[in-house]
């Protein structure tokens, strides 16, 4: 049907104004732009392929963890980009910077004061970090207060050990005012203990680490924390653990008694923007690396969520409750990520598409019906005028006849599918009725 049909002089809408046409064009452009943005979002890579992790010293415990994670993540096509640091405090500073490239790192419990604005989350607590105090003395030292006035190494700047050592010493009244506190790394501290320029030193690490093995097999004495329970009450981020007798050497019975130690907890922490799929992969790697038993914990004790330093990630809560998501359990990681990221994003679009497909037949039917309704309106308007004019003039009769013939001619040209033929003939029947009304009106004036 033409946009403007002269035959429709009763119900013809005025032609579209230029302003309205411009609005429709602008609306169409905005809709296309929105659809383009949505499509670009869907077509983005399903998941990143590299995780940047901040660890610690090159030969430290955190670096060892990361080195063991890397081949496990590589199986799923994820590269672990390992970056060294001075330790826990620097890791925290890197992660809380929203503009930094670091996404994951290890942070020692009790070494930071997290804030909600940090936007960090705990993936899991992964291991105890025993705190060892080795010393040189003829008498047994089992309280930190006994080290007052001595020369003590407390760790390197930026490390969690330095922070913990200073706090523990302060509880015992040992400060820089009454004691020589020296900041140095583990290798230097061990060397100075051996040559007598240090009286005691704090170390941190697992018993099987090379430095700990060197210390445990040396002639230096290992302090047992007699006040461990009280110190843990004052410093809840620490735990009391026991290093069993003969753990270093059964043959030589070293140590010759159980040793009470304090331990921090190594936390695997990430920015809260980390992709959930990567969080699950890290949890799987952590379970493989840390799930075994050791000197201090039974099988399966780590990883766990027994920490309140940072908020626990939602993925970790779900993982410890029911394991990996269903798709990641049974599909290759790339395929599961594709489905989770792309197809799930497409669900609302698919629903919209299905709705449109269902609506199209109804829209087509409505459009066809509307082509007939236009002429019904013309007929009804003409019929109403006939009824309102009991004494028509010959000119009016002539005008009505011309109109009904024009309507009939246009109705005959309407092209519709066969299933709408009955509607076309109903229209022709209505035209015939009005034509009869005109004949009756003309008969009255003859």
Kindly estimate the percentage of residues that lie in beta strands according to DSSP: 5-15%
CATH homologous superfamily title of the largest domain: Periplasmic binding protein-like II
CATH class value of the largest domain: Alpha Beta
* CATH architectural group of the largest domain: 3-Layer(aba) Sandwich
Uncertain regions: pLDDT < 50 for 5+ in a row? Answer: none
What is the number of independent domains?
Answer: 2
Q: How many helices?
A: 13
Shape: rod-shaped
Q: Structural class from helices and strands?
A: alpha/beta
Secondary-structure element series: HEHEHEEEHEHEHEHEEHHHHHH
Q: How far apart lie the N and C ends?
A: 38 Å
Please give the share of residues in helix.
40-55%
- DSSP strand count: 10
Major β-sheet profile: 10 strands, mixed
CATH fold-level topology of the largest domain: D-Maltodextrin-Binding Protein, domain 2
Q: Determine the mean pLDDT.
A: 85
Radius of gyration: 42 Å
């Amino acid at each position: 049907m033409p946009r403007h049909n002269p035959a429709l002089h009763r119900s013809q809408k005025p032609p579209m104004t230029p302003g309205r046409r411009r609005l429709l064009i602008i609306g169409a452009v905005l809709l296309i732009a929105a659809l383009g943005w949505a499509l670009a979002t869907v077509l983005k890579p399903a998941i990143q392929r590299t995780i940047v992790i901040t660890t610690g010293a090159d030969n430290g415990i955190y670096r060892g963890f990361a080195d063991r994670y890397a081949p496990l993540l590589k199986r799923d096509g994820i590269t672990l980009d390992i970056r060294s640091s001075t330790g826990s405090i620097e890791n925290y500073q890197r992660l809380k910077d929203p503009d930094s490239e670091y996404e994951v790192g290890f942070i020692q419990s009790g070494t930071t004061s997290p804030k909600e604005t940090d936007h960090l989350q705990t993936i899991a607590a992964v291991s105890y970090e025993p705190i060892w105090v080795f010393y040189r003395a003829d008498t047994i030292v089992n309280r930190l207060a006994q080290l007052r006035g001595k020369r003590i190494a407390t760790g390197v700047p930026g490390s969690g050990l330095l922070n913990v050592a200073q706090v523990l010493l302060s509880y015992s009244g040992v400060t820089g005012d009454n004691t020589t506190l020296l900041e140095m790394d583990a290798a230097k501290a061990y060397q100075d203990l051996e040559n007598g320029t240090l009286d005691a030193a704090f170390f941190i690490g697992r018993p099987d680490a090379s430095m700990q093995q060197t210390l445990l097999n040396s002639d230096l004495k290992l302090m047992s924390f007699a006040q461990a329970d009280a110190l843990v009450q004052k410093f809840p981020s620490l735990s009391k653990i026991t290093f069993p007798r003969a753990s270093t050497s059964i043959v030589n019975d070293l140590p010759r008694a159980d040793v009470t130690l304090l331990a921090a907890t190594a936390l695997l922490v990430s920015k809260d923007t980390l992709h959930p799929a990567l969080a699950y992969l890290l949890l799987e790697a952590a379970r493989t690396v840390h799930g075994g038993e050791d000197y201090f914990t039974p099988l399966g004790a780590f990883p766990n969520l027994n920490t309140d330093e940072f908020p626990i990630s939602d993925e970790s809560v779900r993982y410890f409750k029911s394991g990996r998501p269903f798709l990641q359990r049974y599909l290759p990681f790339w395929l599961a990520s594709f489905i989770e990221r792309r197809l799930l994003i497409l669900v609302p679009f698919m629903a919209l598409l299905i709705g449109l497909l269902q609506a199209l037949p109804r829209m087509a039917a409505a459009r066809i019906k509307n082509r007939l309704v236009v002429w019904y309106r013309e007929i009804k308007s003409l019929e109403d005028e006939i009824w309102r004019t009991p004494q028509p003039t010959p000119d009016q009769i002539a005008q009505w006849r011309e109109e009904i013939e024009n309507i009939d001619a246009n109705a005959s040209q309407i092209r519709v599918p066969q299933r709408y033929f009955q509607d076309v003939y109903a229209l022709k029947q209505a035209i015939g009725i009005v034509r009869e009304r005109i004949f009756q009106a003309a008969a009255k004036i003859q």
